[in-house]
Amino acid sequence: MADEKDREESLTIDKKTIDVLVANIIPTSKYFESRFDHLQYQINEIKIDIKEFEKRVDSRFEQVDRRFEQVDSRFVELKADMDRRFEQVDKRFEQVDKRFEQVDKRFEQVDKRFEQVDKRFEQVDKRFEQIDKRFEQVDKRFEQIEIKLDKLLERIDVKIDAGLRENRSFSLRLFTFAMTFAAVSIIGLLGKIFKLF
Predict the structure, then answer these.
(1) Cut 0.70: pTM above it
(2) In terms of C-beta density within 10 A (0-12 exposed, 13-18 middle, 19 or more buried), how is residue 171 classed?
(3) How far apart are CA 46 and CA 72, in angstroms?
(4) Helix (H, G, I), strand (E, B) or coil at 121
(5) What's residue 5's pLDDT?
């Protein structure tokens, strides 16, 4: 019996010990502040990543614009070349008219030249058809790129929203757990102090 009283007296806890136990068990506001600072840091990093992504997309569109400018310059060159060739054809027709007046034998040569011009026009028509097809492909490609960008931005938004919701619910669960554990600890300490247990 005396041993039990000695044990009970040796197990009594002074106020400093209780304060140290409470301080180490209950999370401080610094802990929650550090968690919220970490969440803010992650959000800022995501914003920076989105800005960098937008810069890359802008640079890609600038490259596409430059390519269109190159295509436009090629069309101008093609038009100038065609105009020059049509001028050459016009000169040839003038020569043919002169030759009609001079010699009847040259009719056959003129017919051959007309056939060559027709072939060139057919080639020009084929080239225009090829160019039209390429423009259609470019249009389809741009539509695909636009759709992919929209999907990518939607996925990024969904991931950001899911991450924020998950972090918020996780923080609330941690806070609830900490408060419940602290309440149970305090009840246990009070029970121990008042010798209820």
Answers:
(1) no
(2) middle
(3) 39
(4) helix
(5) 55
